[in-house]
Amino acid sequence: MPEADRVGADERFKPEVPATVDGFFLKGSNNLDWGVKNRLSSVFDPRSGRTVMLAFDHGYFQGPTSGLERVDLDIVPLCPYTDALMLTRGMLRSCIPPTYRGGIVIRASGGPSILREDLSDEEIAISIDEAVRLNVSAMAVQVFVGGEHETRSIHNMTRLVDLGNRYGIATLGVTAVGKELVRDARYMRLATRICAELGAAFVKTYYVAEGFETVTAACPVPIVMAGGKKLPELDALRLAYNAVQEGAAGVDMGRNIFQSECPRAMIQAVRAVVHDDTRPEAAHELYLGLKEGIEKSAA
User: Fold this and answer.
1) What's the distance, CA 24 to chain centroid?
2) Can 179 be counted among the known catalytic residues?
3) Sequence-separated (6 or more) residues with CB below 8 Å from residue 293
4) How many CB atoms lie within 10 A of CB 5?
5) 101 within domain boundaries
6) Are 255 and 67 in contact (CB under 8 A)?
7) Residues in Cβ contact with 148 at an 8 Å cutoff, skipping those fewer than 6 apart
8) CA distances from 106 to 16, 55, 84 (A)
C-alpha cells in the first residue's frame, strides 16, 4: 500500500523557500538543452569554467606525425590529466579505454591529406548515428573562413549544428588559417563570430598577440585556444597563460604537449596555468620538477 501522508507535514514542502534557478557556468550556453549542457560539462571543468583539451587528431590528414607514432603508448598515459580529448573515431575505438571519464570531442570533418596543396576541401566525415553511438560530447568541424571552400565548410558546420541539436551534442567550430590568410585579431573576430552566429556551441581559434581580448569579447560563446606549432615549454606556458587571462575558456593543445621533452610533466604544468592561474614562470618550475621526478623514476 502507498504510504499515507502525515498530517500537518506541510512544512516539508518549504513554501517559503523559492525554487533555485541556476545559470549555467559557460558563456552563452544558458539556453542550450540539458543534454548539451551536460556534455559541455564533461569538456569544461565547472569549477574553473575552463578546459585543458588534448588534441591528437592530426593523423586525419598528416598520418603518424612526430609524437603520435604510438598513441597507445604516448597519449593514453596523458589521459588522466586532461579534461577532454580531441581525436578521430578510429583512435577513439582502437586506443582510448572506455573507462576514460573526460569529454570526447570527435573530429567530424576531413578529406584532403597533407599531400594536397588545398586543405580546405573537406566534407563531413561522420554520421550523427556514429557520434551518438560513441557517446561523444562534441563534434569538431573545420571552418575555412576566406578559403576557397569557405561556403562548403560553413555548410558542413551548420549541418552538424542541426544534427547535434537534435540529439543533444555540441558542435565545435574550428577556425582554420591558410597560408594566404592574415592571422590577426580582425580575422579572428570575423571567423569566430561567424561560427558562433551560425550555431557553434564553442569555438577553437589561434591566439594573436595584439587584440586577442577583443576576439574573446566579440564571440558570444566560449573560445578555446589552439596550441599551434611546437614552442619551447616556457613559451607555450606563456601562450596558454596569456590566452586565458585575455578571455579564453581554456586550451586545446597538441604538439606543445605530445612533442614536449616530457609530455606528462608538460600537461600538468598547462593544467596549473589554465585552472589555477599559475604564472608561466612558476608553471615552468613545476614542469622542470615533475620532469626530473619522472626521469628518475624511469631510470
Assistant:
1) 18
2) no
3) none
4) 9
5) yes
6) yes
7) 118, 120, 121
8) 46, 10, 10
Residue 212, pLDDT above cutoff 80: yes
Q: Residue 164: left if φ>0, alpha if ψ -120 to 50, beta else—which one?
A: alpha
Asked if residues 227 and 253 have their Cβ atoms less than 8 Å apart, the reply is: yes
Residue 181: how many other CB atoms lie within 10 Å: 15
6 pLDDT band, cuts 50/70/90, is low
C-alpha cell at 53: 583539451
CA distance to 134, 190, 280, per residue, from 271 (Å) = 26, 29, 11
Distance of CA 51 to the CA centre of its chain: 7
Q: Which residues of 121-132 are buried (b: 16+ CB within 10 A; e: fewer)?
A: ebebbbebeebe
Which residues on adjacent β-strands are paired with residue 203?
A: 173, 223
103 φ, ψ to 5°?
-75, 150
Tally of structural domains, the chain: 1
**Residues 37, 204, 229, 296: which is the catalytic one?**
204
Residue 291 lies in a domain: yes
Domain with residue 245: its CATH number is 3.20.20.70
For 58-79, write each residue's pLDDT tens digit: 988 888 899 999 999 999 999 9
Q: Three-state SS across 6-38?
A: CCCCHHHHCCCCCCCCCCCCCCCCCCCCHHHHH
Task: Give the separation between CA 249 and CA 287, rounded to whole angstroms.
Answer: 22
Report the predicted TM-score, pTM, of the whole model to 2 decimal places: 0.92
Domain residues for 186? 32-40+47-298
Domain presence at residue 224: yes
The answer to whether residue 107 is domain-embedded is: yes
Cβ burial of 2 (10 Å; 0-12, 13-18, 19+) is exposed
